[in-house]
Structure formats: C-alpha cells, structure tokens
Amino acid sequence: MSFYNELVKWKDFDFDGYFSKVTDEDVLNSIEKEKLTVYDYLNLLSPIAQNHLEAMAVKATKLTRQHFGNVIGLYLPIYVSNYCTSNCIYCGFSKKNHIKRRHMKFEEIEHEAQEIAKSGIGNILLLTGEAKGLIDKEYLKGGIDVLKKYFSSVSIEVMPLDEEDYKYLADDGLDGLTVYQETYDETRYAQVHLSGEKRNFRYRLDTPERGAKAGIRAIGIGALLGLGGIRDDAFKTGLHLKYLMDKYPNSEFSISFPRINEAEGNFKDSYAVDDVTFVQIILANRIFQPKAGINLSTRESAYMRDHLVTMGVTKFSAGSKTEVGGYSHDNESTAQFDITDSRDVDSIVEAIRGKGLEVFYKDWETLV
Q1: Chain centroid, CA 109 distance in Å
Q2: Tell me: the pLDDT tens digits for 186-212?
Q3: Do the Cβ atoms of 345 and 327 come closer than 8 Å?
Q4: How many Å apart are CA 15 and CA 261, to the nearest integer?
Q5: In CATH, 3-366 is 3.40.50.720
Q6: In a designed cystine with 256, which of 91, 242, 292, 295 is the match (CB 3.0 to 4.6 A)?
C-alpha cells in the first residue's frame, strides 16, 4: 500500500463544508491536545483558526524548543544544471522557456563548491533540472563525490529515481533527498505539468518512499503553495508527512511550504497565499507533527523569515543562488526563480542569533 491509496480517500472530501462547521472551541481543543488526529490538523488549518494564531504560535514555539532545542540549521543549494526535458508552466527551467542553460562538469562543480565552503556551512543541496538522459545516477554520483570533499552532509533535489538508484547513491555517501510533489491535486497537477517525465503524478508521489526504502537518512517533502487549493495542498502534504513518519521511523523527515516566486515564463499563481495563511500553515504543521523538521528558503522575505525563526522552523537556507555557477560569479545561466531574502550568510546568522538562537552550520557541529 502506498500513500496514493490514502490520498484517494480524500479526493472528494468537502474541505469548505468541513471548515464551515469548525468552531473556535474546536480550534482551541486541538491546540491543547498532546497527540493530534488528522481532523485536529484540519481544524488548525481552518479559516477560523486565524483567530487563534497567537495561541498556536505559543504552542508551536514550545514544541520546537522541546524537540529541536534552541538551534537553527543552515544549508545552501548548489545548482549544477538547468537543462530540463519537462514542460512545467510555473518553473523557470521549463523546456519551453528560452533561457541561458548550463550543465556543469565535475571540475566546475568543484570550483563552485570551494566558493560555497568559504561560508562555513556544511550542509549542501545539489539541484538540477529534470533532464533525463543528461542527468543520471553516474553524473549525480560524480557530483556527490566532489561535494563530499567540502561538506559534511550532501543531499539532492533532482528528478525522481528508482529505489535501486537511490541505494546506489546512498551507498556512495548521499545523506538526504528532497522532492516536492508541487500539488497533491492530481487533476491540477496534470494542468501545470504539460509534458515530460515529471507529468507522472504517481511516480513522483512515491519518490520519498523509495528513498526511505533505500536507506537515505534525511528526506524532505513539500507542496509549492499557489499551484492548487491552499488548505487542500497544505493538509495533504501534512498527511503525506504523517504517512512517511509512521511507516519509516529510521529516516528523518522534514517539510517545506515554498510559495511561488517570479521566474522565467511569468506564471501567475492561481491561488495566492497571503502572509497570515502562510504563517498559519507553518504553525499548524508544527503542532500536528512536532518531531518533523520545517525548512524555510530564501523564497521568503527577510521579515517573514526573521519572525518565523522562533515559531516552528528548524532549518534555513542562507545566501542562496538559484543559477548555475552563481557563487563563483561564473553564472552564464538563468536562475530558477527570484530570491527574496538576498542577505549574505553572516547577516542571516546575526539575525538568528539576535532572536536568542544558536546556529548549526553542520548537522553535527555548532560553530560559535
């Protein structure tokens, strides 16, 4: 049984009808519970729960400190290729876009890694476009081998792979896997993924599970808020997280809710997510799954990140570049999307410490 079977059960669920019946008392009761059901999670995602964001924030902060301590982890993405064979209407790397494309050789990856390593951050996330035929397990292995020389933890965010390929990379030292379902609405998914390998909804949905079966230590999932129904996607992402954490206790799981940013192609999101609802989603997820990590990228503004850092988030990207070669300023390529928080690593570290938190540059080491 895969998560798809669980997802199908909620296909025709009347979210608006359910939310219309949620009361303030329901929300407060859900906040106070030690162990939440999926319906408690729905209560915390309901519009009326926005009346109780302060109480949610207090509970979320308490749970975060309890399970993760007084620390925020840092990571950086490294884009090594922006070629793509899929047509996704919201993505700057989509094959339909006439952009400057680049595919790094291993020696170029090493040069970029040397620049990134100067930041002191030990957690690196390798990203590519989803170009089948150009990106394969051997190319990824070569990139991982380079990055392992400079970073304590190497993760990937690339096209979905088979379980045996993940095991091959895990055996070589791959530490983490990130894959976003983008939207959990299968009909909407088909509307925004017009062609290419990424059009396969089921294969992508099962990707985190294949990674867990292959023994990958850290796995991140998420939805790209703005593609589908906001609360629908938020709920189903949380449901997916619960399924994975219950079934694969030997892996560490984290969640992220990136919002659509400006990118090549000028896609306009159909379901704009306001700041209050975004904060609500983060808080609701922390209360629902207190042991899961929550990542917050530089898609969000400095103002938003500085405020959420104390209310449930456990890991920040810092000083990110989303173009190939961006750190070494050898970036003759188009970025995947626009960065919102453009502060450098030192400025972000100072902001985090200003909130009374410590900074983890590496999973296993705190740099003072």
Answers
A1: 23
A2: 999 999 999 999 999 999 999 999 999
A3: no
A4: 26
A5: no
A6: 295
